[in-house]
Amino acid sequence: MVKLLVCDSVTKKFGGIVALDKVSLEVSKGELLGLIGPNGSGKTTLVNVISGVITPDEGRIVFEGKDITRLKPHRRVALGISRIFQGMRVYPYLPVYYNVSLSARSVYKDARLARAKTTWALTITRLLAEAGELPINLTPYKLRMVELARALVTGPKLVLLDEPFAGLSPSEIDEVIEIVKKLNENGLAFIIVEHKLRYLMKLVNRVVVLNEGKKIFEGKPDEAVSNEEVARVYLGVL
Amino acid sequence: MSRLAFSKPSKLKRVGSILPALFIAAIYMLLPTFGLRGFWLDVLTRVNIFLLITLSLDLYSGTTFYLNLGVPFTVGCAAYSLALLNRYLGVPVEYAILPSAAISLVLSLVIFLPSLRVRGAYFSIMSLLLPIVMAGIVTSQPFSLYLGGEGGITYSPLFFSYARGLPVKERAFFLQSTYFYISSIAAIIAFIVSYKVAYSDFGFMMRSVGQDELLAEASGVNTVRVKLVGFLISSSLASFAGSIYAAMRPPVTVDVFIPANTLVPPLTAVILGGMGTIVGPTIANYFILLVYEALWDVIGRWRVVLYMCLLIVLVLLRPQGIVYYLYTKLKRLVSSKIAELTAGV
Amino acid sequence: MEELKYILIFGSFHSLTYLVFSLGFSLVFGVARLPNLTYGALYVLTGYSTYVFLNYLNTPLYLAVPVSILLTAAISLAIGESVIKPAIKFPVSVFITTVAVAYIFEELFSIQMGLKPVTLPLYPGTTSILGIPVSNHWLLITAVCLAMTLALLAFLYKTSTGKAIRAVAESWEESMRLGINPLRVLRATFLISGVYAALTGILLAPLKALTPTAGWSPLFAAFAIVVMGGIGNILGTVVASLVYGFIEQSMVYVLGGGIARVAPLILILLILVFRPHGLFGRGE
User: Fold this and answer.
1) Which residue of A224, C83, C85, C143 shows the fewest CB atoms closer than 10 Å?
2) How far apart are CA A226 and CA A228, in angstroms?
3) Distance (Å, rounded) from C-alpha C81 to C-alpha C99?
4) Chains B, C: CB pairs < 8 Å
5) Does residue C273 form part of some domain?
6) Cβ–Cβ < 8 Å for A91, B207
7) Based on the structure, what is the number of domains in chain C?
8) Chain B residues within 8 A of C209 when measuring between CB atoms
9) How far is CA B234 from CA B54, B76, B203, B226, in A?
10) In angstroms, what separates the C-alpha of C91 from chain B's closest C-alpha?
11) What's the pLDDT at B342?
């Protein structure tokens, strides 16, 4: 069976710093993968490489059997890789509706289909009432929902979430988790980068631990917690 | 804080604003028959043409926030192409308008293409550089021999051969009013096109590029294509402005490349009107340019200094512009008044 | 052969002046991440103010020069504080305000001084280099430029302000974590870059005719050089200055001064097409 996403010994350097050092990673269809590691371990760089914001110096990225290493970000979105950025990143002066619909309009050439998809994405993120609002008037939770709606509207097979729980209250995090679980049941795969391990470990099937650009662990969440090296790396953080 | 925020006006509201706009346009077009003559008719013609430049700037820079200081380049290339087609190939200006606009459009596109592909300061730097380089080339050897040097290139203007058949007394007014009608129609078409584009899905994609280009790219928007097509539409407006203006007002001189002539008033109009709003800069264009013309007799070249100071103050204190804000206020006031009046019926 | 000698000699001289001019430009560019479009105007301003001091106020040269430099540095600081710093989060606003200030200066110069070129006194005498007579003024320029380059290097690597400038140019977030105030560092760069624009302006004004629009060409050259060399990369800037100086002088001697105007345009286009992140750039 063809894996959904394969990262094959991806390396990325910034000046003298090695942000990613021969990192290999596989994601199957419908998997929930947690990506953790201390600050500066290369998690966000890996997300950037997979979403195409950065091209790696070495290595290959294969999505559904297709080499996408040099593909532009917007083409990857059309293939089925969506992402959300760290922090609440939305178009500050566009209403919620356009924040979401522009991505749909870029991927679906049919305007009617794009509108239907936008309505669908706004419905599952419970944003219909706020469609005309500007982001400045929304709570962090609603902003996160806008980002999620934008990621979902393009009909992805894999969604990269970079710190989706940051800035949210525990009950809000539970709601995000609920939505993610529901989508996952319908076959959507996720890679989740997160510092709040307590929530993450309950959610994901598998975790990958990065440290200083290297993959140091890969396996079940409960094994990761008991792994010595992971504990050592996280000592400063936990 | 709702600066630079947009929502699409509803169908009903649009009909409400189209009718008064049509009325104003009709009155405006009839000005020559009401007896407007001479200097101010010429000025209004100029201001009409400048609307194309203002809208060109607003449509691209007002939405994508890539500042296009190279508008004089596009305008100037169109004007010089028209003059050169006429001088070296003998094409009458009537037939040279379309090809010269096309030449300028292609030139602008080719030279800006590399800077449209990347993010950052390149585009603005390139755009600032090009008019200055062109002004230098046009006036220096060996190009000045072919491009007319400081004196520029002269030719017979639009419809001049036709006007020659008229009685001497009628000639000047015939040309003046014809130019006024042509420029007015061009201005109206430019406004409709710009408005349609700026508030279409494509227009909102241009805005998404302006507000967070990386985010747009990473969430599916083909930013390079959006910038390219947006630049194409915007530059075609500037090209037509150059061609039509040159066709009416020979000679073409280096003045078209000088920012004080072809950039300062439109840029001020865009900022004063509210970037990306189309309606605001359109209204501001008429105000700003008429004042700019009138100021020439009062303070001469100091008008550039005055406008640039105004620009700085506006950008720092009120980047969202003034005219569009007043316009929406006024519209709301009028519609509530109408609602009040119709409520009793 | 004769032309080759000219290109070699004057290419070197010009490269050195471009280096100094670009170093000043790159300070603000590196810290603010935005090109200061008024930098060319500062270059012209110093020339005119020295001219006014010498010819209208009859100030002796040894007073006129330092006063003009200080004046330009102060104006550079004022511009930076009033129109760059408040808008630093909105690049398009900074572009508009700085280009507006540059146009204001251009108009003021042409209203007050006219379009006719003015010159400043030349350092007298000539020296023969490789059989080519070279004005002693170029030797003066060389000495001053070398001293200024070394002074800047010493400043950037030895003083605490210099180290702060480098840290902020590297990363705003990191430097703030280290307790550096980027906005204060920015203020320092306005001041220093003003001095560098001023000195090159005074040194080159006697050799190049000073006109209200004379500042644009060096501004674009500086932009091209800094981008090609990589922001914050001193060695890169040196190499880029050499490349630029020699390209420009070759165009002047082979194709003529008129066409040489397009030198910065060609260089920026080449960078854009082949290496948008600079020859030695760090990428994103």
Assistant:
1) C143
2) 6
3) 15
4) 112
5) no
6) yes
7) 1
8) none
9) 10, 15, 12, 12
10) 8
11) 67
Query: Where do the domains of chain B lie, and which CATH numbers do they carry?
Result: 11-343 (1.10.3470)
Verify whether the Cβ–Cβ distance B221 to A51 is below 8 Å. no
Dist. CA A123–CA A118, nearest whole Å: 8
Cα separation, B137 vs B73, whole angstroms: 12
Q: Which contiguous run of DSSP H or E holds residue C104?
A: helix C91-112
Please state, as a whole number, how many other Cβ atoms lie within 10 Å of the Cβ of residue B250.
Answer: 20
CB contact under 8 A, B1 and A136: yes
Looking at chain A, which residues constitute the CATH 3.40.50.300 domain(s)? 1-80+156-238
Q: Report pLDDT for A127.
A: 92
What is the Cβ-side half-sphere exposure of residue A173, based on CA atoms within 13 angstroms? 17
Are the beta carbons of A103 and B221 separated by less than 8 Å?
A: yes
Listed residue (C20, C30, C44) closest to C213, CA to CA: C44
Locate the chain C residue with the closest alpha carbon to A14. Answer: C282
Segments of chain C scoring below 70 in pLDDT:
276-284
Smallest Cβ distance to C216: which of B132, B308, B319?
B132
Token code pair at residue A124: 């599952």
With respect to residue C94, please indicate whether it lies within any of the assigned structural domains: yes
| pLDDT (0 to 100) of residue C98 | 96
Residue A18 has pLDDT above 80, yes or no: yes
Q: What is the pLDDT of residues C152-169, one digit of tens each?
A: 999 999 999 999 999 998
Token pair 């000045």 is found at B144
| Axis-axis angle for helices C182-204, C136-158 (nearest 10) | 170
Q: Among all residues of chain B, which has the CA nearest to that of A86? A: B215
Identify the pLDDT of residue B171.
86
Q: Are B129 and C219 in contact (CB under 8 A)?
A: no
Percent of chain A with pLDDT strictly greater than 70: 97
Q: Is any Cβ of chain C less than 8 angstroms from the Cβ of A54?
A: yes
Q: How many CA atoms lie within 13 A of A152 on its CB side?
A: 24
Inform me whether the pLDDT recorded for A172 exceeds 70.
yes
Helices (H) and strands (E) in chain A, counts: 9, 10
Task: Please check whether residue C227 is in contact with residue C278, taking contact to mean a CB–CB distance below 8 angstroms.
Answer: yes
Structural domain A1-80+156-238, CATH architecture: 3-Layer(aba) Sandwich (3.40)
d(CA A129, CA A96) in angstroms, rounded, equals 10
CB contact under 8 A, B2 and A51: no
* pLDDT single digits (tens) B209-262: 999 999 999 999 999 999 999 999 999 999 999 999 999 999 999 999 999 999
Could B215 and A89 be called an inter-chain contact, meaning their C-beta atoms sit closer than 8 Å? yes
Touching check for B40 and chain A: CB below 8 Å?
A: no
* pLDDT less than 70: residues of chain B: 1-17, 338, 341-345
Residue of C nearest to A12 (CA): C283
Which comes out higher in pLDDT, residue B143 or A5? A5
Nearest CA in chain A to C170: A15
Picking from C96, C216, C266 by the largest number of B CB atoms within 10 A of its own CB, the best residue to mutate is: C96
Domain assignment present for C282? no
Question: B38 near B224, Cβ under 8 Å?
Answer: no
Q: Smallest CA–CA separation between B128 and chain C, in Å?
A: 9
Cα separations (Å) of B267 from A129, B262, B284, C60? 38, 9, 10, 43
Q: Quote the pLDDT of residue B223.
A: 95
pLDDT band at A102 (very low <50, low <70, confident <90, very high): very high
Containing structural domain, residue C141? 17-214
Tokens 């994405």 identify what position? A121
- CB atoms < 10 A from the CB of B329, how many? 10
Q: What's the complex ipTM?
A: 0.92
Establish if C1 belongs to a structural domain: no
List the single residue in A with minimal CA-CA distance to B212: A91
Residues of B in contact with A107 (CB under 8 A): 220
Q: Which chains have 3+ CB pairs within 8 A of A?
A: B, C
pLDDT of B5 reads: 42
